Amino acid sequence: MSDFSTARQKMVDGQVRPSDVTDLRIIDAMLAVPREEFVPASQRAMAYLDLDLEVAPNRFLIKPVVLARMLQASDVKATDKVLVVGCPTGYAAAVIAQFAGQVTSAAGMPADGDATNGPYDLIVLAGATEIVPTGLYKQLASGGQLVGVFALTKPARAVLVTHSHEDFGSRPLFDATAPVLPGMEKLPAFVF
Predict the structure, then answer these.
(1) Taking the domains of the chain in order of start, what are their residue ranges?
(2) What is the pTM assigned to this prediction?
(3) Which residues of the chain have pLDDT under 50?
């Protein structure tokens, strides 16, 4: 077993499983996808640490545990059409592609998503938002879900949003931190 294979196994056994991730599809996908190939060469040794890794200016790979727990809460189906938003190197999309029907990764401005390939059964924010991403809500199929870290208040929380007909409901999942995605920052308020 290579050093990276060992590190990948330790990430799953020491971070993901102890965080109550029991979905074997997620565990198997995280074991199968070599995270070190999705970071710059200078950061390969840190690929499996419990960190948000900056892979480009203001672009991050979120912590493996946060991604795994959000995916488990969203209960991805093999037939689901999934949009991954804010995934700068494709790691989250590669993990999800191991068990979802179709995966699209939106590399541009995260708040814009990718309406041309929607509607989606699931939208995954691979980072945090400080605003309500209403533009992304419109890209959900009826019955679709959006999962991400919402930093609208402190502490930030992973939240699962469900689209039912014309209504949206949300359920907080767990406290979480993640870097805010570009374009999803709260605008500064005017203060006298």
Answers:
(1) 3-175
(2) 0.92
(3) none
